[in-house]
Protein: GTPase HflX
Organism: Christiangramia sabulilitoris
Amino acid sequence: MIEKTDLSYERTVLIGIVTKDQDQEKLEEYLDELEFLTYTAGGEVIKRFSQRMDRPDPKTFIGSGKMNDVKEFADENDIGAVIFDDELSPAQQKNIEKILKCKILDRTGLILDIFAQRAKTSYARTQVELAQYEYLLPRLAGMWTHLERQRGGIGMRGPGETEIETDRRIVRDKISLLKKKLETIDRQMEVQRGNRGQLVRVALVGYTNVGKSTLMNVISKSDVFAENKLFATLDTTVRKVVIRNLPFLLSDTVGFIRKLPTQLVESFKSTLDEVREADLLLHIVDISHPNFEEHIDSVNQILTEIKSLGKPTIMVFNKIDAYQPEVIEEDDLITEKTSAHYTLKEWKRTWMNKVGDGNALFISALNKENMEDFRRKVYEAVREIHITRFPYNNFLYPEYDKYGEEKE
Ligand SMILES: Nc1nc2c(ncn2[C@@H]2O[C@H](COP(=O)(O)OP(=O)(O)OP(=O)(O)O)[C@@H](O)[C@H]2O)c(=O)[nH]1
Ligand SMILES: [Mg+2]
């Protein structure tokens, strides 16, 4: 079902709209992210189209004049796929396909495609497949029919043409089958998790590409796949980590993203159990990303969805080596100072100062900067949980700074 990795980059066009809640600048930021997603999926963005609208057109999302421009461009430039930043309704997708006669993807379809491409274990593949079928179900009628000749590439690594003529019932059956399969795996995983004993469990969470796996590798000396693409990690890796003499379990899991498709949140439920069952979260943030504050909000929103907001959390601001505030030239009297101009020192005096009792850390996992701070903070937090759980063990784990004193 999930097939195909295409090495040649497919030519694509991106489309987004400017509304009263989303100005041109915001849209460009979102399209930057969409372009990164497209690249991750194996596409090259040839052009971006945007239109100012009060609300999307219920039939074709963008207006007909703009649609003509897109069609002309796509025909002349050998465009294989047109990708929309927002979720299209099944009807919109069908209508637009009829007009443009090429592959039409929305953000959800694109993310699902990347997940399909990246899912390696049978567990991850089953979860992705379930999400793909859930996404496909309302879109079945009339889908793909005029696309036979153009199969392959982005958006086609999923349930496709074999399902064209078949009816919804078959897809429904497939969905319930996959759900059963997942339930079985879930039970096995639950048993496995149960066998891990009483160690404190810590989970790395954060937006995609912030450096979770890199940090995991640094502190656990393990080898988790890290890459400058989105969703490098889809499975959960759990490692035993020991700081000083204090052991705990650390898990690295799938990254979050703005508007993470609900189908994926649901079908990745058990991968996310690792987060739900954690005693402590390390929320990793890429502070060098211009949108990092919005990323934090997206992550918190997903944490809320999986009922994990409000757990003990340490905020870890990563990539301080790459952080570059924008600079206002001395003779520039017009530009107003915004948070984009803050130095790290200034940032530390903002709301960051208030996250849970100084629970903010500033590190570079890549250059191993401030890792001592990181170890200390994590040690203290894990110790706190440990001695609350096992008060009689108190003497085993002294405060971080007192560790080893007796020996010296
Ligand atoms: N400059 C800089 N780059 C970093 C740092 N930490 C990680 N990176 C880079 O950021 C990219 C993403 O790192 P990953 O560790 O794969 O990120 P992740 O959060 O696991 O990403 P997903 O698994 O996709 O959610 C890689 O190219 C890393 O080399 C850092 O401290 N500074
Ligand atoms: Mg990762």
